[in-house]
Design a protein that fits this description.
Two copies of one chain form a homodimer. By secondary structure, the first copy, chain A, is mainly alpha-helical. Helix content of chain A is about 80%, strand content about 0%. Chain A binds a DNA duplex through helix 1 and helix 3.
DNA sequence: GTCTATAGAAGGATAGAC
DNA sequence: GTCTATCCTTCTATAGAC
């Protein structure tokens, strides 16, 4: 009965997803997964052969889920600035529903870099840049976004949304000391982050130009 | 011989630090640590009683090391803007020398939040804000930094420096596809990040005011 | 203080009955 | 396809000799 097969296999997969996210590959126990799925340990091996294969299945699903959440942001035919607002709103909302994904992924990637290597092999970053540059040629010029600094900019965008989740335990603690709630912080962040980034991009030329003349006792500029 | 004691204990501690950072608490093996320290496994227990205690010693040292790197940034008596530049330069330089610390700390904090709770118990965030607000009263007003948004701003600063290291494995892979080197990326980031943040802070009022009038088809504003 | 030897428990994996 | 029983390895931890 393929029907029943699928049911059991899915139950295992779901339970494994929960346990792996919670404890990581090294911390997770096959027994924990079996318990959570409400079945015998040996069934996990029957369906997935080994802990490693089961983990890989879970990891790949989660990595794909995250990746897919990034893509549609840059599909819609709207102003670049609106895309930025859209990105922060949608991505933080997604992570609010899946708060442990960032920490899980980052940890497992660092623990075993080869996993991400084979995953990234299928992903075409270059064409992503190309689409962006053709769709928003004029706007990107206005914002001083170039082929050279786009990794810096993109890494800032992702860092701003992902880091609070990766550092969730720590940040919660710090906020609590100020009588602030993590969830309120995130709600604020959806608009604050967008305003912050747009402001930076719109005025970076001002900042650096202004800086040159304004700071006299400022000898930290790059000496070439 | 207390001299010899200290020597052995330190050797264990150093080896444990390396192994724990590399493999994490769950992935690390006492045998690995003993091997790296060049001694017998039972000596680890003689000096540290258990794996858990050994890990706690290492964790606390590393957490303290990170924390201490944040503090002096806000000590010097210079312009707030220069502090931001100083922060990015110094902090990224520190992490270049210790690239695995962020991932290690973030992972272990999420894996066992109680650890950071007891660590944070001794840290006085409130007085840190107070010092900042008295030292830079006028500047903070100019930059529109308030008691309300300072967690947002600080989290952006830290995210920008820490995230690339937490996501090192992934970022290296992405950069490699563009024929870019992680280390060059970091060198650029020291100044780029500072320019970016200063630009954002200087002009956030512009961005949001401008935004109101400029975007007509922009119905995503917070509806209250 | 350092080593050898080993206890004791836990975990991944498989064989075999149903 | 699912369960019980068990193998085999690995790991933390300790006992005891030197």
């Amino acid at each position: 009965m393929t029907e029943k097969d699928k049911q059991t296999e899915d139950k295992i997969f779901d339970a494994a997803t929960e346990v792996f996210i919670e404890k990581g590959m090294d911390g997770a126990r096959m027994q924990d997964i079996a318990d959570r799925a409400g079945m015998n340990k040996s069934l996990l091996h029957y369906y997935y052969r080994s802990k490693d294969r089961l983990f890989n299945a879970v990891f790949e699903m989660i990595a794909m889920k995250m990746l897919k959440k990034f893509a549609p942001v840059f599909d819609a035919n709207v102003l670049f600035e609106d895309k930025i607002r859209f990105f922060f709103r949608e991505h933080i909302s997604f992570l609010q529903k899946n708060p442990r994904l960032p920490a899980f992924l980052l940890n497992e990637i660092n623990r075993n870099p080869s996993r991400i290597k084979q995953f990234m092999a299928n992903i075409d970053i270059e064409s992503f840049w190309m689409i962006l540059f053709t769709q928003h040629k004029e706007e990107l010029k206005k914002y001083h976004i170039t082929r050279e600094n786009i990794p810096q900019v993109m890494t800032i965008l992702v860092a701003i949304t992902v880091f609070p989740f990766a550092a969730r335990g720590l940040l919660k603690e710090i906020l609590a000391k100020q009588n602030l709630k993590f969830d309120d912080f995130l709600e604020d962040r959806k608009t604050f982050a967008a305003d912050f980034v747009i402001s930076a991009l719109q005025n970076m030329h001002l900042s650096t130009a202004e800086d040159e003349s304004k700071t006299k006792n400022h000898d930290e500029k790059k000496r070439t």
